[in-house]
């Protein structure tokens, strides 16, 4: 059985992914990790597994998922989606290699030499304007590509954006474990707390929603604010959260009579961009590519030397949390 080939016009994404899923379901064999790769070290770990730096002789990242906590169909689905999207320059590259080891499922991806974007963000300061703009353009491009394929990532956050140089000339989205087709039913528990859109945070009788690319747009807006300021705009998008409640009142005011903290940290010309990305009403929320219209504007207010001296330059990534 040969590897399926995508139609030249990119049509029928669902059919192609089904064929890819079937191919790896039938052809993934159980092998010994040590026979295939030289394991250099662990790059990171989490609830469901780890990422290893391996050599074959190429240096690559091997995503390992614990078989006791992951069903094979979910693993192959994540791998297939990731591999399918990997042709985009701002989505993590794949090698089409998936394995079943004794205790893990695994697939190989290109290695990010720097790590994830979260690790670079100075707390309460944010990244330089030029760096933020580079990230914004690339993330927007990747999200627009996913939207064109009818896919919704559902877990956009700096931890899932890999960095290939410290100036962020190249960043790539990764981790497609939650990705769904637009319109598919998703749990309201989907996503990471501070990046979840209000429709996912509402405590109503609805336990499920339809996946929508505008859920990713909201998370993208939160990511941009975090990159620019080094802080979260709120802890979660519920009216119980004071900062979020003030943001909602500000967005609904016509004309706006006040700018709440921490939005005062941003140039006023940029407020409309965030009102689009973070529109509380999903039906009027903009697209990720809306940021392109703001590239010629100033994104960060200048900070005085006195203020700069009060901001530490060396922070642990664990210090970055919703305020």
From TrEMBL:
InterPro entries named in the record: Kinase-like_dom_sf (IPR011009), Prot_kinase_dom (IPR000719), Protein_kinase_ATP_BS (IPR017441), Ser/Thr_kinase_AS (IPR008271)
Residue stretches making up the Protein kinase domain: 37-297
One Pfam family recorded for the sequence: Pkinase
Listed GO MF terms: ATP binding; protein serine/threonine kinase activity
Keywords, sorted A to Z: ATP-binding, Kinase, Nucleotide-binding, Serine/threonine-protein kinase, Transferase
Binding-site positions, ATP: 63
Protein name (Swiss-Prot/TrEMBL): Protein kinase domain-containing protein
Biological source species: Leptobrachium leishanense
């Amino acid at each position: 059985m040969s590897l399926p080939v995508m139609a030249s016009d990119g049509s029928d994404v669902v059919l192609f992914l089904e064929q890819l899923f079937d191919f790896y379901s039938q052809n993934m064999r159980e092998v010994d990790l040590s026979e295939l790769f030289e394991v250099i070290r662990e790059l990171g770990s989490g609830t469901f597994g780890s990422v290893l730096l391996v050599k074959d002789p190429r240096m690559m990242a091997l995503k390992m998922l614990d078989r006791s906590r992951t069903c094979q169909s979910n693993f192959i689905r994540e791998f297939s989606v990731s591999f399918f999207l990997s042709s985009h320059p701002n989505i993590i590259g794949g090698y089409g290699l998936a394995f079943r080891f004794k205790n893990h499922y695994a697939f190989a991806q290109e290695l990010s030499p720097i790590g994830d974007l979260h690790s670079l963000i100075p707390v309460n300061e944010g990244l330089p304007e030029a760096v933020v703009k580079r990230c914004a353009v690339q993330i927007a491009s990747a999200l627009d590509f996913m939207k064109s394929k009818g896919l919704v990532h559902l877990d956009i956050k700096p931890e899932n954006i890999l960095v290939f140089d410290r100036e962020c000339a190249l960043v790539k989205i990764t981790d497609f474990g939650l990705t769904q087709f637009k319109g598919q039913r998703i749990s309201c528990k989907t996503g990471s707390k501070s990046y979840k859109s209000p429709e996912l945070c509402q405590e109503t009788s609805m336990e499920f929603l339809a996946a929508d690319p505008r859920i990713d747009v909201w998370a993208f807006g939160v990511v941009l604010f975090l990159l620019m300021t080094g802080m979260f705009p709120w802890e979660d998008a519920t009216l119980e959260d004071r900062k979020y409640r003030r943001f909602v009142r500000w967005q609904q005011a016509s004309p706006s009579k006040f700018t709440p903290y921490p939005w005062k940290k941003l140039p006023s010309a940029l407020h409309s961009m965030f009102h689009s990305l973070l529109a509380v009403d999903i039906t009027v929320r903009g697209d990720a590519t809306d940021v392109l219209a703001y590239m010629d504007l100033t994104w960060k207010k200048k900070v005085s030397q006195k203020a700069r001296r009060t901001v530490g330059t060396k922070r642990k990534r664990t210090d970055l949390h919703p305020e």
